[in-house]
Amino acid sequence: MTQHNIKDSDLFRQQCFINGQWCDAEGGATLDVDNPATGEIIGTVPRMAEEGTRQAIAAADNALPAWRDKTAEERGKLLYAWYELMMAHQDDLATIMTLEQGKPFAESKGEIAYAASFLKWFAEEARRAYGNTIPGARPGQRIVVIKQPIGVTAAITPWNFPSSMITRKAGAALAAGCTMVVKPASATPYSALALGELATRAGIPAGVINVITGSAAAISTTITQSPVVRKVSFTGSTEVGSQLMAQCAEHIQKVSLELGGNAPFIVFDDADLDKAVEGAIASKFRNTGQTCVCVNRFLVQDGVHDAFVEKLAAAINQLKVGDGFEDGVTQAPLINQGAVKKVIEHIEDAKSKGAKVVLGGAAHERGGNFVQPTLITGATQDMEFCHEETFGPLAAVIRFQDEQEAIQLANDTPFGLASYFYSENIHRVWRVAEALEAGMVGINEGLISNAAAPFGGVKESGLGREGSHYGMEEYLEAKYLCMG
Ligand code: NAD
């Protein structure tokens, strides 16, 4: 396949995983998958459509009664075995991820550990699907609430976190007693298929989790037209999320949507600037700027503006661009040419409206999907990047004067996923944390993702939460028993 060695070659699967079997698409249609660093085709996967999707849904439906009836402890043990296998094969899984997604190998290893952590966390949480008892309305009456799995579920996931966006959903679903059909992004199917292989090895019964690749429109339409599927969990763009939500209306399928963001990162005059720069690099340049919780707008107070820009420029200068398999690389290629075009457009738009380029500002000399890490100052809220996710290595700095202005600028977006701010003043910390319209706020912290914490957004960034006990609730129904 490539020069990169995958020790356990059975982890590199080029077929879909339905009912515990590896299978091809109807008619044998396939899709090519490439390496974004080289453009080289690394393999193919089936281009499934309606028929394959119906088979996967039927498999999940058949597997549901036995899976739901297992004790929570039994399900937890199987999830834990799946977690252990992911960690045992961390290098192979990371190699597959860097090959198809491009991210630096060290980041891929980090993502595998993060992805596995959801399986471990939900393996433990499976036992805590508590209901409750409520005093009745009449003498002798009891109100009892039990929690039951919602049933067959579906997950549609993006390319930027090919493994963790699946385990964050599947861990919660399987712990709750649901079964699942997963459709990964077409750019990164192999990480998903490897998870199918490891689920089998862990002893998770056939049909409990199924992975199908292919036509996004045909697969999602079949999922949303099926009354058997009771919940659809989607991570991706707001545009597609909104379409899916409309499709889910037909059968009143429950939806969770983890969508786009436009995170502000506010640096106040009273911030610890070194800490702020460290957080800025982590939250802006991780995955080469292709994360949904990435900073899209730096808002920096007048008094520290120049000092912050100087320190940030020095830190950006340390970043190394290259193939994710090269030693020391921190900035890998973007996923495709469309992504490169968007970053360049945002830079050009900002320049045309008066921004100044401090570093970078163009495609990288390596060509292909590489872009220079870029820092611009003098940015203003009328620039395109303030209204759309850039999804690339562009750090743009807007100067502000006072706290009220910072909050107004931060909230001036239809999105509300992550936000960040740096301040050493406890009164300001509370005021600003409460005023920011976002599902998640990093306070003197640039890395906020964790299996134990509820991840999700407000406004057009989505509905529902993933991770933590809130994440498992999404896969449970509350049933009220009225005992007379
Ligand atoms: P995308 O919306 O293009 O694709 C996501 C998934 O939807 C893929 O599996 C894709 O094949 C599928 N899809 C595409 N068109 C579809 C259609 N018409 N009907 C049904 N499914 C369709 O997003 P992407 O480019 O893969 O991912 C990047 C986006 O995901 C960014 O906006 C990012 O912010 C967001 N994201 C959000 C989170 C979060 O937790 N909030 C996490 C990661 C990524």
From TrEMBL:
InterPro entries: Ald_DH/histidinol_DH, Ald_DH_C, Ald_DH_CS_CYS, Ald_DH_CS_GLU, Ald_DH_N, Aldehyde_DH_dom, Aldehyde_DH_Superfamily, Succ_semiAld_DH. The keyword Oxidoreductase applies. One of its GO terms (molecular function) is succinate-semialdehyde dehydrogenase (NAD+) activity. The active site is at E258. GO terms for cellular component: cytosol. One of its GO terms (biological process) is gamma-aminobutyric acid catabolic process. Residues 22-480 form the Aldehyde dehydrogenase domain. Keywords: Oxidoreductase. Belongs to the aldehyde dehydrogenase family. This is Succinate-semialdehyde dehydrogenase subfamily. The lineage of its organism: Bacteria, Pseudomonadati, Pseudomonadota, Gammaproteobacteria, Oceanospirillales.
